[in-house]
């Protein structure tokens, strides 16, 4: 059954996942695999979209899939499928074992050395819900959000609509060492995007909220109004002169800036010689005002998890302490290859073996308000949107398109568009001279506003 | 050749008769304009080499049926991953709730499946037909060739990925179309090091073509040479200047400019809703008279090509801009209907689990009359950009960016030195009005593009001659 309007997950899906994994591990053993692991994900999603006060789309889906990794000694291969019928699974596992015979012997490949219980009771990470909202309730909330945006200001002339969605999933992981655990995860999202016009200039912006419970995304009016105010304030944007200026990254763009660090600090990048942070453990990699923590136990946060993609218990850690790099992040493979221990940072997509990734990342907030930061900077740019992909964690080179606001003497003067910011990640992180107090946990990467002293801006 | 007309019948007990009988219980309200079922069965295989070892190999099987109901501006969508007539009818029933009004008792009437009227890609000599050791051997060869090319190469990462997709589109007008769509992609990425200076170089290629041509010894050698050459060039690169300057774009992949600057802004959904910077501008001048730009899904073997789009409409060559004048938008069936025009065969979806949207296929600027060498020598002071990474656009404000991965600083028509990668930013609706020269050397990219929109990825192509664009903003560091 696939289309389940407004129902919860199929109650048996945790059991179905466990049963499928047991079957697969046994099939792998009989096909000649020396060890194996498997990851099962089953999910229900429902998304409604409204535009200009009318329902525009309704999407419902229930899907499930399983990713399998097999080892033949120190050779490995992986397979994935959405068909859980025993005959198909048996032949797919046999195919995986046959493929593994042809890959290279790799002395570092393999499951973790031992299994340990999950770090935390999963029920503490993702609260149980007494009631799942109906499709009509999702529609109602999306309509209220868009209505608040459209009536906010006469310059709001068009809409890309509002969307409300829910997603519930079961994740089960098991390996041939005997690990077999699962957990349930839920999330809701509400977003709105509108268009403002002035003369022949047209600008679009959006706002959104996500949360583990329906109640967490209840303030439709506030989301709509924020989407509209963000859009209207963009009107009248112009360019600024090319030069080097202080730049404040707002919490949304600061998340993106800090996100590049999560890529550079990966143990996979380290053994591949593919990070500018190589050889920098124990040395300053950011300004001394910066402390970065990873917390996999934040209740309801999108990256929270009781065990990692290889079944190892997750744990809190400090990545950067007052500017000094404390550790890289490792999965079992990158750790073995470099003579280290896994930091339980394996992440897994169905189609591939584990890679390195973070759970939730948090930059410790400071005490300054945005006004304080602007006053401290004197004049400069407050960045609110970044576009493009001009960032290399291999070289640390950074160059992206930006949108923001020019400020002088602590006050915003006008919006700014069609400019770029450029530098190197190393310089940028070291030049973060202050942090805002405006930290909010909205995503898996979370940061307050960050003031960077002296970034190159290309404009007129 | 396997009988693809019978592919889903054999596999999924969805013979026309049993499907017909299941669907006869679903009757569509008269307010429904369009409905379809999209059957998909895709096998993907991938191999990768790093650290001199092919240590990853994998296969993924993906299958399902997407059901879609369109009524005016509304779309209802659901999918199932089980190929049973009952599940399919239930998916359709769920999608149907979007449409208002009483059922008209108008059940779907199905014709026999038909193949598209053309063959843009082969169905024999595909990567799947080759033994696993041969495919692994290709990656081992790449690793060896790159390391032979230069002792500065400290890492080689290469991958070989291919997919074999079979689709069947069942439309509410009774038409049933089947197609089998292959796609192969190879990528070589190297890191070269000199002292503490580490730089990357890469080369990717592929398409909907037979396997022999893609992995010929000459092709592998050329790819490795190019990837290593680019990394070595970047070792010599100096900081890129910043500010507004004139830029010459080399032929091929720099055509990503067209994709970002104008392509997305001409997609039918944004224009129907009036949210694109190009909305309502058909017939107006949006580019220099030197520019004629087409979207062409009919180029044989290209990554962005399709016999039919994901709504069963044959793909075509659509003129977007003719001698600088905006001529047309890219349409799927829903947006075409709402705008009173016809689908241009640009209705595409990532998979059965994703709804259809208007998307590009291969977006190309036709060649001009300038000698490419003269285009470069005309540059007084600026940047010559020959290769790029990705790009992005805000279709409402029109602002777009794309990132150079190999570029040179030029003065008085002479290349002085390579510069580090930097982002270029411009304004879509006017960037093409600043095109001063268009070369004769139009070339298509090597088959590397993937376009993302609303969370969906689809393969695309671009093509560009050498062109000069005045007054682009270059995001360098000095």
UniProtKB/TrEMBL annotation, chain B:
GO molecular function, one term: metallopeptidase activity
Domain Metalloprotease TldD/E C-terminal: 242-476
Pfam family, one: PmbA_TldD_3rd
GO cellular component: cytosol
Top-level division of the source organism's lineage: Bacteria
Domain Metalloprotease TldD/E N-terminal as annotated: residue spans: 35-99
Protein name as annotated: Peptidase U62, modulator of DNA gyrase
Species: Leptospirillum ferrodiazotrophum
């Amino acid at each position: 059954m696939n289309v389940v309007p407004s129902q919860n997950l199929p109650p048996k899906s945790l059991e179905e996942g466990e049963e499928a994994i047991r079957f697969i591990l046994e099939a792998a053993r009989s096909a000649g695999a020396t060890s194996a692991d498997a990851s099962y994900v089953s999910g229900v999603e429902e998304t409604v979209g409204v535009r200009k006060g009318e329902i525009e789309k309704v999407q419902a889906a229930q899907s499930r899939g399983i990713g399998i990794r097999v080892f033949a000694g120190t050779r490995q291969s992986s397979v994935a499928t959405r068909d859980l019928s025993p005959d198909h699974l048996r032949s797919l596992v046999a195919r995986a074992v046959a493929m593994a015979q042809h890959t290279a012997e790799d002395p570092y490949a393999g499951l973790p050395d031992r299994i340990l219980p999950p770090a935390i009771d999963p029920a503490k990470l993702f609260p149980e819900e007494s009631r799942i909202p109906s499709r009509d309730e999702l529609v109602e909330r999306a309509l209220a959000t868009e209505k608040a945006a459209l009536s906010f200001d006469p310059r709001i002339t068009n809409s890309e609509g509002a969307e409300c969605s829910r997603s519930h999933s079961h994740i089960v992981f098991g390996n041939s060492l005997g690990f077999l655990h699962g957990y349930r995860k839920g999330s809701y999202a509400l977003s709105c995007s509108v268009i403002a016009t002035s003369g022949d200039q047209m600008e679009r912006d959006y706002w959104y909220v996500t949360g583990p419970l329906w109640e967490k995304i209840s303030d439709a009016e506030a989301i709509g109004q924020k989407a509209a105010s963000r859009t209207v304030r963009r009107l009248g944007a112009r360019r600024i002169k090319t030069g080097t200026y202080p730049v404040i990254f707002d919490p949304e763009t600061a998340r993106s800036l800090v996100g590049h660090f999560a890529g550079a600090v990966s143990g996979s990048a380290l053994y591949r010689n593919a990070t500018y942070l190589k050889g920098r453990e124990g040395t300053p990699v950011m300004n001394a005002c910066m402390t970065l923590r990873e917390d996999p136990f934040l209740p309801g946060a999108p990256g929270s998890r009781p065990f990692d993609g290889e079944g190892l218990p997750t744990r809190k850690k400090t990545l950067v302490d007052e500017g000094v790099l404390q550790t890289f992040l490792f999965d079992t493979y990158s750790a073995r290859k470099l003579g280290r221990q896994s930091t339980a940072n394996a992440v897994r997509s169905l189609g591939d073996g584990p890679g390195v990734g973070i759970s939730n990342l948090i930059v410790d907030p400071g005490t300054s308000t945005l006004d304080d930061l602007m006053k401290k900077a004197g004049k400069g740019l407050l960045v609110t949107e970044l576009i493009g992909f001009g960032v290399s964690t291999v070289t640390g080179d950074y160059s992206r398109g930006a949108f923001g606001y020019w400020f002088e003497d602590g006050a915003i003067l006008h919006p700014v568009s069609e400019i770029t910011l450029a530098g190197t990640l190393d310089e940028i992180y070291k030049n973060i001279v202050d942090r805002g107090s405006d930290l909010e946990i909205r995503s898996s990467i979370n940061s307050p506003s960050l003031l960077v002293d002296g970034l190159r801006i290309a404009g007129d | 050749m396997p009988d693809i007309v019978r592919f889903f019948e054999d596999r999924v007990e969805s013979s026309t008769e049993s499907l017909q009988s299941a669907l006869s219980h679903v009757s569509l309200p008269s307010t429904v304009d369009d409905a379809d079922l999209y059957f998909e069965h895709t096998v993907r295989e991938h191999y990768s080499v790093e650290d001199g070892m092919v240590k990853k190999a994998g296969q993924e099987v993906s299958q399902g049926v997407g059901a879609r109901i369109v009524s005016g501006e509304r779309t209802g969508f659901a999918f199932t991953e089980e190929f049973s007539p009952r599940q399919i009818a239930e998916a359709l029933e769920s999608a149907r709730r979007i449409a208002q009004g009483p059922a008209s008792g108008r059940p779907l009437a199905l014709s026999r499946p038909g193949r598209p009227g053309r063959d843009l890609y082969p169905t024999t000599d595909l990567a799947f037909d080759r033994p696993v050791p041969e495919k692994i051997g290709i990656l081992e060869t790449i690793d060896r060739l790159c390391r032979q090319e230069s002792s500065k190469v400290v890492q080689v990462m290469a991958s070989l990925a291919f997919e074999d997709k079979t689709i069947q589109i069942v439309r509410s007008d009774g038409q049933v179309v089947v197609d089998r769509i292959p796609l192969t992609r190879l990528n070589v990425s190297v890191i070269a090091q000199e002292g503490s200076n580490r730089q990357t170089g890469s080369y990717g290629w592929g398409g909907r073509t037979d396997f022999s041509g893609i992995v010929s010894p000459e092709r592998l050698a050329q790819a490795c040479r190019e990837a290593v050459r680019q990394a070595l060039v970047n070792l010599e690169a100096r900081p890129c200047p910043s500010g507004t300057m004139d830029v010459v774009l080399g032929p091929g992949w720099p055509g990503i400019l067209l994709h970002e600057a104008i392509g997305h802004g001409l997609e039918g959904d944004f224009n129907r809703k009036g949210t694109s910077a190009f909305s309502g501008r058909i017939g107006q001048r949006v580019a220099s008279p030197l520019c004629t730009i087409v979207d062409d899904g009919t180029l044989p073997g290209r990554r962005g090509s399709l016999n039919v789009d994901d709504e069963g409409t044959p793909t075509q060559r659509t003129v977007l801009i003719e001698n600088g004048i905006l001529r047309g938008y890219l349409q799927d069936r829903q947006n075409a209907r709402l705008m009173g025009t016809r689908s241009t065969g640009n209705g595409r979806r990532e998979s059965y689990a994703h709804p259809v949207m208007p998307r590009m296929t291969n977006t190309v600027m036709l060649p001009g009359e300038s000698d490419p060498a003269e285009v470069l020598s005309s540059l007084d002071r600026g940047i010559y950009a020959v290769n790029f990474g990705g790009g992005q656009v805000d279709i409402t404000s029109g602002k777009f960016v794309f990132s150079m991965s190999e570029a040179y600083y030029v003065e008085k028509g002479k290349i002085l030195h390579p510069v580090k990668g930097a982002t270029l930013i411009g304004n879509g609706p006017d960037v093409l009005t600043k095109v001063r020269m268009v070369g004769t050397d139009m070339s298509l990219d090597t088959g590397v593009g993937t376009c993302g929109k609303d969370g969906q990825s689809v393969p695309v192509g671009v093509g560009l001659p050498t062109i000069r664009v005045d007054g682009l903003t270059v995001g360098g560091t000095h």
